[in-house]
Amino acid sequence: MDVVNQLQRQFLDYSASLHREGFLDDQFTQLQKLQDENSPDFVVEVASLFFEDCEKLINNMARALEQQGVDFKQVDASVHQLKGSSSSIGAMRVKNVCIAFRSFCEAQNREGCLRCLQQVTHEYSLLKNKLQTLFRLEQQILAAGGSVPAIE
Amino acid sequence: MAAQGIQGGRKSNKMTALVADDNMVNRAIHHRLLDNLGIESEAVGNGKEAVDIHCSGKNFDLILMDMDMPIMNGIEATRKLREMGIRSMIAGVSTRSVEHEIREFIEAGLDDYQEKPLTMSKLISIIHKIKG
Predict the structure, then answer these.
(1) Structural contact between residues B29 and A31, judged by C-beta atoms closer than 8 angstroms
(2) Which residues of B18-48 are buried (b: 16+ CB within 10 A; e: fewer)?
(3) For chain A, which has fewer Cβ within 10 Å, the N-terminal or C-terminal residue?
(4) At a CB cut-off of 8 Å and minimum separation 6, what does A22 contact?
(5) Inter-chain CB proximity B29 and A84 less than 8 Å
(6) Across residues A92-113, what is the average pLDDT?
(7) pLDDT of residue B34
(8) A55: nearest Cα among A144, A150, A128, A134
(9) A152 and chain B in contact, CB less than 8 A
């Protein structure tokens, strides 16, 4: 009982910190609410799709920015996609970098774009680690016989 | 995720929906939202596929149409579907916030428009429009 309570408290605190620090916004909570017995792994599955998507798009952006004559429209198309999926999953910090990134694409500013690419790579990697920690906490609660508390 | 096998027909009274979005994260989320409401859905990755699936004889109660898609975007696809005589509820979903772009999308033949990300309450308000 004690162990479960402790783990549940840890989970709620960790989740609250992710929101407080801007890694996640309310959209992530919305996704957690969609998870039920019919789809118990929904959030993990969507997060996996998101990370796959991130990696592919970041690679596309990097390749496009390496070219002699940068096709900023192509870079922007990838950033737009990433902005869309990060917004849908509630990855607020990633989304915010994408917003700045798009301005640099519009201005055809290669240096600015490269800086944003670095930032977005960093934010994606941070978020991936943090979500993996959150999911691990969930697994520990379930393994200890408890249930994952709902986030309000 | 599969709709009924009979061309144009229905095995049950379940509502059906088509999700047209080029982003797989969005497709997964929209499918889950619909599934939670007991709505069977299929997904396509661009406007041309959305038109083609109707040409093959399939019909849906609701179409969730993304604006920005490759090959054929949501505006063109909506226009084409209306020209084909498709009267299903078409709800445009997009991250665009520029008024004239949204207006162009609506004028292409949308019944509703919602800003992404799509949430349960936004989807419910779309569905109320079908029933109402």
Answers:
(1) yes
(2) bbbbbbbbbbbbbbbbbbbeebbbbbbbbbb
(3) C
(4) A92, A93, A96
(5) no
(6) 97
(7) 96
(8) A128
(9) no
pTM of structure: 0.89
Q: Look at the block and give the residue holding tokens 């929209």.
A: B30
Q: How far is B79 from chain A (nearest CA, A)?
A: 23
What pLDDT score does B4 carry?
43
> pLDDT, tens digit, for every residue of B81-120?
999 999 999 999 988 778 899 999 999 999 999 998 999 9
User: Chain A contact for B25, CB < 8 A?
Assistant: yes
Nearest to A39 among B24, B25, B32 (CB): B32
Rounded distance between C-alpha atoms, residue A97 and residue A114, angstroms: 12
* Statement: residue A66 has pLDDT above 70: yes
* Residue B92 DSSP SS3: strand
Residues on chain B touching A30 (C-beta within 8 angstroms): 117, 119-120
Judge whether B121 and B103 are in contact, CB under 8 Å: no
Q: Is the pLDDT of residue B5 over 70?
A: no
User: Are B117 and A83 within 8 A, CB to CB?
Assistant: no
In single-letter form, the type of residue at position A43 comes to V
Chain B CB within 8 Å of residue A23 CB: no
- From residue A37, alpha-carbon distances to A33, A34, A44, A152, B36 in Å are 12, 10, 14, 19, 11
Burial pattern B7-17, b for ≥16 Cβ within 10 A else e, equals eeeeeeeebbb
CB-based contact, B22 to chain A, within 8 Å: yes
ipTM: 0.89
Which amino acid appears at position B8 of this protein? G
